[in-house]
Amino acid sequence: MKGQVLLSHGMESGPQANKVSALAAVAEARGWRSSRPDFRDLDATRDVRRLESRIERLLASVEPGQPLVLAGSSLGAFCSARASLSVPCRGVFLIAPPLGIPGFPLSLDLPAVRAEIVHAWGDELIPAADVVAFASRRRLPLHLLDDNHRLEAHVDVIAALFDRFLGSCE
């Protein structure tokens, strides 16, 4: 086993969602163990104060002493990035990350580790220009796809990008 890939689903999603399932399959094919915590109980309230509990649950899923890669979609990307500030990891793979959450005091941030972003030109929730500016300030690889926030038409493309990213973390 090469380590752990910790996958975080989005707000209106779950651990069996298409994107996190595709990333889990990539991780397992490469010899990593994937974990997908379930945040649906916390997300059901839509209470922004529960974000800290979401991040704490994510951190509680980390296997100590194992190489770690964090990946997530939408709110899961935000929480993965925030969690990466508290635990050593080899990389962070973000899909459609919000740069901030209204009512939550912290914004998207990352430590100095390998990171990559996939976003949609037509994201109706998070403007692509804002994500381009964030990636530009940090010189992060950014893949912009012709899709909407859910990126449903590009799950295979995202899986291929994650495969390459995960290979760079080995």
UniProtKB/TrEMBL annotation:
Residue stretches making up the AB hydrolase-1 domain: 29-146
Domain of life: Bacteria
Alphabetical UniProt keywords: Hydrolase
GO MF annotation terms: hydrolase activity
Protein name per UniProt: Alpha/beta superfamily hydrolase
Organism: Pseudofulvimonas gallinarii
